[in-house]
Specification:
The complex is a heterodimer of chains A (113) and B (110). By secondary structure, chain A is an all-beta fold. Chain A is 0% helix and 50% strand. In chain A, strands 2, 4, 5, 6, 9, 10 and 11 form a seven-stranded mixed sheet that branches. A four-stranded antiparallel sheet of chain A has the order 1-3-8-7, with no helix packed on it. Helix content of chain B is 0%, strand content 55%. Chain B contains no helices and eleven strands. Chain B is globular, with a radius of gyration of 13 Å. The chains are: A mainly beta (113), B mainly beta (110). Chains A and B meet through strand 5 and strand 10 of A and strand 4, strand 5 and strand 9 of B.
């Protein structure tokens, strides 16, 4: 079945640690996106990539980094520079210039301990 | 001014009633409009999209678009407890990225 997979489902980070969230899709979509959602809030764009080996900052990129070495994969690293990383992280992908919208993964809930 | 604005809610409707959700957008050049449903603790799932002015019906859901007024709405007929969720309005911009509203939380009471 085609879809988009995020792992892990839950992640705990200690102060000062970098952590990487995985996002893999087998939908043959060109574009991939990372969003952050805080309780009771909407989606805020962190980074996006519309083609392999290229990515752009979104609205809240500070403290995050990404790579897009393969079409299927778009991992997000939450660095120690991100001072308030506790949130629900959503990865999405889109084909056809996003004219049919995004497909979302199931999300990763990151908590600082 | 926010790009996509929704009534924040919460919206409480009795079972069997019609739930009406509204969304306005600022980019007059937007061409594609989407409604996502998000259950608590889950990821958003696409329930409707609309490109042309007028109404589009899919089961108990009807999306309405008025580009002149920059307004898109979602009607949920015969509301069920399983419709209790947050509904996100999204608009596709010319840079092929979706802009999301903050969402409207709907509670269907039995």
């Amino acid at each position: 079945d085609g879809g988009i997979t995020q792992s892990p489902k839950y992640l705990f980070r200690k102060e000062g640690q970098n952590v990487t969230l995985s996002c893999e899709q087998n939908l043959n979509h060109d574009a991939m996106y990372w969003y952050r959602q805080d309780p009771g809030q909407g989606l805020r764009l962190i980074y996006y990539s519309q083609i392999v080996n290229d990515f752009q900052k979104g609205d809240i990129a500070e403290g995050y980094s990404v790579s897009r070495e393969k079409k299927e994969s778009f991992p997000l690293t939450v660095t120690s520079a991100q001072k308030n990383p506790t949130a629900f992280y959503l990865c999405a992908s889109a084909g056809g210039l996003a004219s049919y919208g995004y497909t979302f993964g199931s999300g990763t809930r990151l908590t600082v301990v | 001014q926010k790009e996509v604005e929704q009534n924040s809610g919460p919206l409480s409707v009795p079972e069997g009633a019609i739930a009406s959700l509204n969304c306005t957008y600022s980019d007059r050049g937007s061409q594609s409009f989407f409604w996502y449903r998000q259950y608590s603790g889950k990821s958003p799932e696409l329930i409707m999209f609309i490109y042309s002015n007028g109404d589009k019906e899919d089961g108990r859901f009807t999306a309405q678009l008025n580009k002149a007024s920059q307004y898109v709405s979602l009607l949920i007929r015969d509301s069920q407890p399983s419709d209790s969720a947050t509904y996100l309005c999204a608009v596709l911009a010319n840079d092929y990225k979706l802009s999301f509203g903050a969402g409207t939380t709907v509670t269907v009471r039995a």
